[in-house]
Design goal:
alpha/beta, Rossmann fold, 2 domains, 8-stranded mixed β-sheet
Length: about 375
């Protein structure tokens, strides 16, 4: 009976340690399914917490048996893997201020450094600023709204227009409200919009909606205490494609800059280099959004590909991408950065080697902190009034 109990205990130790090791491995292994990608976001951005869990587990799984020793070694290996994201972030932390300065000039963000180690545990607490939900347009019988976060200021301030992710066919403007509140608490008005979704509404519906939101906000600039001549667009994933497309096609000097998180920037490239269908069905999503393949709709693919819209009038651009993005390849941002360099547009392509798609969802994580610092720096640099 004792042997049976010990065998069961050893089995439980092994299973627990295997689960820890498998979970921690997502810090370095490309997630093979959509569900595991979501787990990977947590592992890569909260790996420093998983590290302590793994270390704390070692005394509990250790025993003199083969199973106990193996379990302890697996927990130790899991701890090493879990530490990799923060270790890789250290180099970015050291290099980023100089890179931002070289790209956009001098600025002074409120954060003391790109990566504040204490914030990995205590977090970043934005002000609890409530959003005002406003209808900015009614199109095809559908009311389109935005959530407006007023800046904590009595003077007219720059406006950040945020466009949500969701493969152009889902998502919500409440997905990343921590960043909206953070920016509103640091002197920026923020409008996080919703837009018409595919497949019912295809391109250019979403870009038209974004333009309509900008027109609406400008028309109420005095009421909302925003400066209509200092606007920055910020989009994530599909929203990044929308933000870049609007910014590059507008040729409007009031759009001072555009920020893109892990966006598809060349939709021809997306078609020719689809991702793992167990994570994202790239071609079906493109057909739903653009109405066909590149062969069937070449003009639409051109008009929806920011890389092909860059001109000498394009605004300064901040690109942020994870080096192991399972949904949108980091080559997308690299290709756009190359084109911006050719034309001479101020830009920075910030590659986070450990990060995956959606890394900024967890504001306290290394990707969340570093991107917050970069955004603050960029916003100050491009919206600053000339002396």
């Amino acid at each position: 009976m004792v042997r049976v109990v010990m065998a069961l205990v050893d089995s439980a130790r092994l299973i627990f340690s295997i689960i820890l090791l498998a979970t921690a491995s997502l810090a370095v292994v490309i997630a093979p399914t959509h569900f595991l990608w979501m787990v990977a976001v947590g592992v890569t951005e909260l790996g420093h917490m998983l590290l302590f869990i793994c270390l704390a587990a070692i005394p509990f799984v250790w025993s003199s048996s083969w199973a106990g020793k193996s379990s302890a070694l697996m927990c130790l290996a899991a701890a090493v893997l879990a530490s990799i994201p923060v270790l890789r972030a250290i180099r970015v932390d050291h290099e980023l201020p100089a890179e931002l300065r070289a790209a956009f000039g001098e600025a002074t963000p409120s954060r003391s450094a790109p990566l504040v180690y204490g914030d990995l545990f205590k977090g970043i607490s934005p002000l609890e600023i409530s959003a005002e939900t406003l209808v900015y347009s009614t199109t095809d019988g559908q009311e389109l709204s935005l959530d407006f976060y007023r800046a904590q200021s009595e003077r007219a301030v720059p406006l950040v227009v945020v466009i949500h992710a969701g493969s152009w066919q889902s998502g919500d403007n409440r997905d990343f409200i921590s960043m909206d509140r953070y920016l509103a608490g640091h002197g920026y008005a923020v409008a996080d919009i919703v837009y018409r979704l595919a497949p019912r509404w295809k391109f250019p519906a979403a870009t038209d909606d974004t333009r309509a939101a900008i027109v609406f906000l400008r028309s109420h600039a005095e009421k909302f205490k925003i400066d209509p001549n200092r606007i920055v667009l910020l989009g994530r994933s599909a929203g990044g494609q929308i933000a870049l497309t609007v910014a590059y096609s507008a040729k409007d000097p009031a759009i001072r800059g555009v920020i893109s998180f892990y966006a598809p920037t060349d939709l021809y490239y997306s078609w020719e280099n689809p991702g793992n269908p167990l994570v994202l069905d790239t071609k079906t999503i493109l057909i739903d959004y653009l109405g066909g393949s590149p062969a069937e709709a070449p003009a639409i693919y051109n008009d929806a590909s920011p890389t092909r819209l860059v001109t000498p009038d394009s605004p300064p651009t901040l690109l942020l991408h994870g080096g192991r993005d399972e949904l949108v390849s980091f080559h997308q941002s690299a290709r756009l950065a190359k084109r911006l360099d050719e034309v001479g547009i101020p830009h920075l392509n910030l590659l986070l080697p450990w990060a995956t798609h959606g890394f900024d969802y967890i504001l306290r994580g290394p990707g969340g902190q570093i991107s917050t610092y970069a955004i603050e720096y960029f916003l100050e640099a491009v919206t600053r009034e000339p002396r």
